[in-house]
Write a structure and sequence with these properties.
Radius of gyration: 25 Å
Structural class: mainly alpha
Number of helices: 23
Strand content: under 5%
């Protein structure tokens, strides 16, 4: 127990490096949260494997199931982590303090509790059948735009060094596992990198943020490797010195991640050291690129928040629901993104895929259904404003409102006389409902 503080510090250093490996855009993606949730689930399951107390083991498996199930509702392929976790429980069944079937039942109960809470939330606030229908159709939109081969995903966006390091670490762990005859519960360390790689490969996009489970899992493998080797050479000073040197190199590698971090190089912390500095244009300039304009989002959101009531809703046509967060307003319809109303990119196809005739028909039907849904919703409850994004991803229009008129003529015709001409906030165009604008 005396060396636990040192291992805690090592964990903070190695696992904390996760948050300097990616830039602000990739760190903010959902995969970062899911990686942490799976890590928590693995920690709970590891404790359940190790304990001799029956009740503690049962609670550990239940909580592990609850934590890992949370990821399913944001990215369904994350169910692969639960499958791998169940596999480790089956392999280590002889060492568990409870029967493996009870362990699996407790995991299922924990997952069921989480799932019930999540589904109940949707039922209380939204339309669950509609959500399921919409989610089932979204892969069709993505499949024809991004469908890179595994080799292309490996080579894209600078993924190669991260994947090489992960594969090398995984190979070293497997050698160590069999050579040192590690306990089977140590296989839990493989769940994040292997499951993360499966999710990364299955999506076929190759985006760097899809690797967050892999890189965090690689850190777990590194810690387990060092711990296993340190225990193996305990009492052998010469070998222990070699292990210390290896641990130091691992620390230097984490330091290198920090030094090369876009956050460090971009000097965001210094540029936004105070609340006043974080509200300045100079600070926001750090976060803009070709299709994301933070200053424009904030300016339009501030205007909308000042000129609408809190209970009024907004319809967007772009790819930044962040605008709704900044304005503190809810969406008027379930259709948030331009690629649901403008499917040109999916019809054209992208890397690795072209839509078949059946796909094209399904995409057009999806678009027509999305416009019909928006038209029905805004007629029933006219939103306070429509917001159009210039240069939004997928379509990259120079004029977001003109793109909307071209692809959603029915809704555009309905709003024409009911909403004031567009106000410009850089790349955002805001049309206020006449009745709302006239109200005090």
């Amino acid at each position: 127990t005396g060396d636990r503080p040192l291992w805690a510090l090592a964990g903070i250093g190695v696992l904390g490096a996760q948050y300097v490996r990616y830039d602000w855009w990739h760190t903010s993606q959902r995969e970062g949260l899911y990686a942490v949730l799976v890590l928590v689930s693995l920690a709970l399951q590891a404790a359940a494997h190790e304990t001799r107390d029956v009740r503690t083991a049962a609670r550990g498996f239940a909580l592990a199931g609850a934590a890992t199930a949370l990821t399913w509702f944001g990215k369904p392929p994350c169910v692969v982590f639960a499958i791998l976790q169940a596999g480790v429980a089956l392999l280590d069944r002889a060492r568990l303090s409870i029967s493996v079937w009870r362990a699996l039942r407790m995991g299922v109960l924990g997952a069921a509790a989480t799932s019930t809470a999540m589904v109940s939330f949707v039922l209380a606030f939204e339309d669950l059948p509609l959500a399921v229908r919409m989610l089932a159709k979204v892969p069709l939109l993505h499949h024809t735009i991004w469908n890179r081969s595994l080799v292309e995903c490996y080579r894209s966006f600078g993924n190669t060094p991260r994947l090489d390091w992960a594969m090398g670490t995984t190979a070293a762990f497997l050698v160590c596992f069999f050579a040192f005859r590690l306990p089977r519960r140590a296989l839990l360390a493989l769940v994040l990198p292997l499951g993360g790689f499966a999710v990364f490969a299955a999506q076929g996009k190759g985006f760097p943020y899809h690797l967050q489970m892999v890189t965090l899992g690689t850190g777990v493998l590194e810690l387990v490797l060092v711990a296993a080797i340190a225990r193996r050479v305990e009492g052998r000073p010469a070998l222990a010195a070699a292990v210390g040197a290896g641990a130091l190199l691992l620390g230097l590698q984490c330091r290198q991640d920090a030094v090369m971090s876009p956050g460090t190089q971009g000097d965001w912390a210094a540029a936004g050291a105070t609340p006043a500095m974080r509200a300045s244009d100079a600070y926001l300039d750090h976060f803009e690129w070709g299709d994301f304009f933070s200053k424009d989002l904030r300016a339009a959101a501030a205007y909308l928040a000042a000129h609408t009531r809190e209970d009024e809703r907004v319809q967007t046509y772009g790819l930044d629901p962040y605008f709704l967060f900044l304005a503190r307003r809810h969406t008027a319809t379930p259709i948030l993104y331009d690629f649901e109303l403008n499917v040109d990119a999916a019809l054209e196809g992208g890397s690795g895929a072209r839509p078949s005739a059946a796909d094209r028909a399904a995409l057009l039907a999806y678009r027509d259904g999305a416009e019909a849904l928006v038209l029905e919703a805004v007629r029933a409850a006219p939103p306070a404003a429509f917001v159009f994004f210039d240069k939004a991803p997928f379509s990259y229009p120079e004029d977001g409102e003109a793109d909307f008129r071209a692809h959603c003529p029915k809704v555009a015709g309905w709003l024409e006389d009911r909403y004031l001409p567009a106000l410009r906030f850089g790349t955002l165009r805001l049309r206020m409902r006449r009745a709302a604008a006239a109200a005090p």
